[in-house]
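Long-time lurker. I teach an intro course on protein structure, and each term I like to show students one example going from raw sequence to a predicted 3D structure in token notation. This year I'd like something fresh instead of my usual example. Would anyone be willing to generate the tokens for the chain below so I can use it in lecture? Attribution to the forum is fine with me.
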Amino acid sequence: MTEEMLVEQARTGTVPPVRHWPALDLPGVAFDPVLSELMEEGPVTRIELPNGEGWAWLVTRMDDVRAVTDDPRFSREAVIDRQVTRLAPHFVPARGAVGSLDPPDHTRLRRSVVPALTARGVERVRDSARRMLDELVDDLLANGPPADLTAEVLGPFPIAVICELMGVPVADRQGMHAWTRMILSSAHDAAVSEQAREEMGTYFAELLDARADSAGEDIASLLGAAVARREITLEEAVGLAVLLQIGCEAVTSSSGQMFCTLLTRPELADRLRADRRIRPRAIDELLRHIPHRNAVGLSRIALEDVEIKGVRIREGDAVYVSYLAANRDPDVFADPGTIDLSRSPNPHVAFGFGPHSCPGGGLARLESELLVDALLDRVPNLRLAVPPERVPFKKGALIRGPEALPVAW
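-- Reply from a regular --
Happy to contribute to a lecture. Here you go:
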């Protein structure tokens, strides 16, 4: 939307048309063409997603995305009991869950797990995470090519790490993975997802109760102790545990996209093999560039009239932000569609922004660093075993990524 159009809209009170945004199963790491069109149409547009009711505002520019996510006038809690237009038939905000709370309750709940997710807390699991990853790579090499990198490394590694941080026993980790996949899929009946969420919640309620007096540093112990001290409710603690646990699936998907990108463009992988010093910066660039999800995540509700780029958002309106679009904002990133492994500064919002930014962002970055180091250094001839267009990507999923990543070496 041009500046003249914005001025005209402000003068006449007209609003942009509602654009239908279908649930697309996009090939590979392609950027969503509907989102590209919406970004071209203006910084503030209106969308209708496949489920829920009505329409919602969509904000795509970096400054506006940061402003909305950090503005208490836009509420997550007010979404409860609202049939806001959304991508999936399920995965709606749950009452009492950390993703559905506003400060100060949201701040109180997140505070209970801060010790485990600070830089120090994440570093506590670095050595054990590296050992677990080395064992997975040992098995990969021993079994020989061809192999499915997702099944053998990228899937089990984040599960093992988050379960280690959560305090989930080894024997229960595959069950956690199955629940997570059912919760995050949009390809089946909502009842299946709800049942998986309930089963995972029941599991964590029992684990937190068992760890209430353990004084451990794992997240289950921290949450159990916080419940015992009546700082948070059991319902709140379970909701946060579920949210953190299912976050491991996002790491599997994003690392799958990351390695699919590196193996599809071997000149990028060669640069990272040749110069270890650029790897942290390169990982940030890959996190900025890859499309982590389909469409948009959770919405917010405007608690009062707010103006964004000359557009009046009315009290009660639903608002979405797009972190994917913000990460391609040409006013922030030069040539945003290009992967520049030396890009600096790189103020991406791959882990969100504001009070609801991903609490496990530091852990996800650590896992990405360990994966890049282990796979590029220990498997120097790693390559795709099929043409890039034959890499199967998930269908009907909220979080995008390869279903399998066939590799050889």
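Some talking points for your students: Residues 38 and 83 are 23 Å apart (CA to CA). The first strand starts at residue 18 and ends at 20.
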